[in-house]
Amino acid sequence: MISIGTKAPDVLGVDAKGNEIKLSNYQGRKLVLYFYPKDSTPGCTQEACNLRDNYSTLRRQGYEVVGVSIDSAKSHQRFAEKNALPFPLISDTDKTLVEAFGVWGEKKMAGRTYMGIYRTTFIINEEGIVERIIGPKEIKVKEHAGQILS
Length: 150
Prior knowledge:
Shape: globular
Number of domains: 1
Number of helices: 5
CATH topology: Glutaredoxin
CATH architecture: 3-Layer(aba) Sandwich
Order of helices and strands: EEEHHEHEHEEEEH
CATH superfamily: Glutaredoxin
CATH class: Alpha Beta
Number of strands: 9
Helix content: 25-40%
Strand content: 25-35%
C-alpha cells in the first residue's frame, strides 16, 4: 500500500483517450492523483468541477491533476466532455492502481455492503514521493482544490 514517504509507481494507467499516463510525464511538477468512486454521481461531479474551476490556479502553483476510477474509458470520455474537464481520467477497470494505493475496499451505504473506491487524494511531489494524503473523511468535494492548496 502506498503511504506518505513512498515512491509512487511510474506507470499509472491509461486515460480515456488511450494515452498512457506516467508519473515521469509530470517531472518537476506536483501531481494531484485523486481517486473517486463513480463518474457522473453528484459528489464525484462536484469534486471534478471544483478541480476544473480551480485548475489554472492549481497549475500556477505547480500542480497537475489526474483523476482515477474503475469506470470504463467510454464513461470517462462522457463525464469529461459533459463537465469540460481539462485533466486526464484514468480508467482502472482491472483495479491495479486502486489496489496499489489501498483505496479499494468494503463500503456500506443505506444498509448495503459492497466493494468500492474510498475517495482519496494523493499529493505526489516533484521527485515522485507521496507527500500528503487527503482521506475519505477529510475531503470536501465542493472545496477540494482549496484543501489541496492549503
